[in-house]
From TrEMBL:
Protein name in the entry: Phospholipid phosphatase-related protein type 5
GO process annotations (BP): phospholipid dephosphorylation; phospholipid metabolic process; signal transduction
Alphabetized UniProt keyword annotations: Cell membrane, Membrane, Transmembrane, Transmembrane helix
CDD domains the record matches: PAP2_wunen
Predominant location: membrane
Residue intervals passing through the bilayer: 25-42, 233-252, 264-286
Membrane topology value: Multi-pass membrane protein
GO terms under cellular component: plasma membrane
């Protein structure tokens, strides 16, 4: 009879952990690619049809003058997208480089994070590890914000303040004899269809959401990462300046009659919510790996047996119990 071959030895724990982490990295890359593709379909294709919302005859909320194309705005899309994509990348790279150099100078290199690719078997440069993680989460949140905003615009189909100027409805043909008459249907407009479609996508405001998302993420990064002395006023000034720029972007959208106040406020809420969620729940307030001595100290405290001390009755408590017994 043939002798059965012995079973193959299990892989070492380090190799198994590395393989698991590698699969998790591939899964995260697939999620990132899917997010980018969904944002692309929302932004540049007609896959999702916009809700056609009606309006009342001579409605004053939509009769503002047409401010011109987006490129003529005080905050054009090229400037906004460049700042939202470039400034956080530059600040995070500079901040992580400074933190890495300070930790190397203070001989705190052993408390750095390990690589996500190889688990516990070897180390990778912590500067690359942290920078890639923080920038990757930021990019994911930027595309997620765009998806949330586009989904809201497609579902609501809210009209811009200058919608009537682009729609150019023929009130006589539509029979608008009363202000309370409601007009519905895409055939009510006779203007440029592309401009009319853009005028139906204002809620929430994309510019407000992207600007406040970038400002909130960057402000929380600066607050949680920079721990140097003498920055008690520098950090608040820098963070408040970022938030002020985002706030002015929203005000500019209203002042130029490109969005309503409700559109801007909704965009602010979307951007702040996504940034706060990613910072608090995903990157854990930009904290690194907990040092090993803290883990061992907590483990020792958890394994320490509880010591019960005998209870000593005080004379005051005894007199109080006696008095209570006499009253009852």
């Amino acid at each position: 009879m043939p002798v059965p071959s012995p079973p193959a030895p299990p892989p070492p724990p380090a190799a198994a952990a590395a393989a698991l982490l590698t699969r998790m990295l591939y899964f995260q890359m697939v999620i990132m690619a899917g997010t980018v593709m969904l944002a692309y379909y929302f932004e540049y294709t007609d896959t999702f049809s916009v809700n056609v919302q009606g309006f009342f005859c001579y409605e004053s909320a939509y009769r503002k003058p047409y401010p011109g194309p987006e490129e003529s705005s005080a905050v054009p899309p090229v400037l906004l997208y460049s700042l939202a994509a470039g400034v956080p990348v530059l600040v995070i790279i500079v901040g992580e480089t400074a933190v890495f150099c300070l930790q190397m100078a203070t001989r705190d290199f052993e408390n750095q994070e390990k690589t996500i690719l190889t688990g516990d078997c070897c180390y990778i440069n912590p500067l690359v590890r942290r920078t890639v993680r923080f920038l990757g989460i930021y990019a994911f949140g930027l595309f997620a914000t765009d998806i949330f905003v586009n989904a809201g615009q497609v579902v609501t189909g809210n009209l811009a303040p200058h919608f009537i100027a682009l729609c150019k409805p023929n009130y006589t043909a539509l029979g608008c004899q009363q202000f309370t008459q409601f007009i519905s249907g895409a055939e009510a407009c006779s203007g440029n269809p592309d401009l009319i479609m853009k005028a139906r996508k204002t809620f929430p405001s994309k510019e407000a959401a992207l600007s406040v998302y970038a400002a909130t993420y960057l402000a929380m990064y600066i607050t949680n990462t920079i721990k140097a002395r003498g920055t008690r006023l520098a950090k608040p000034v820098l963070c408040l300046s970022l938030m002020c720029m985002a706030f002015l972007t929203g005000i500019n959208r209203v002042a130029e009659y490109r969005n309503h106040w409700s559109d801007v406020i909704a965009g602010f809420l979307v951007g702040i919510s996504i940034a706060a969620f990613l910072v608090v729940c995903v990157v854990n307030n930009f904290r690194g790996r907990q040092p090993e001595h803290e883990h061992s100290h907590m483990d020792n405290l958890a394994q320490m047996p509880m010591i019960s001390l005998p209870r000593v009755e005080s004379p005051l408590e005894k007199n109080h119990i006696t008095a209570f017994a006499e009253v009852t």
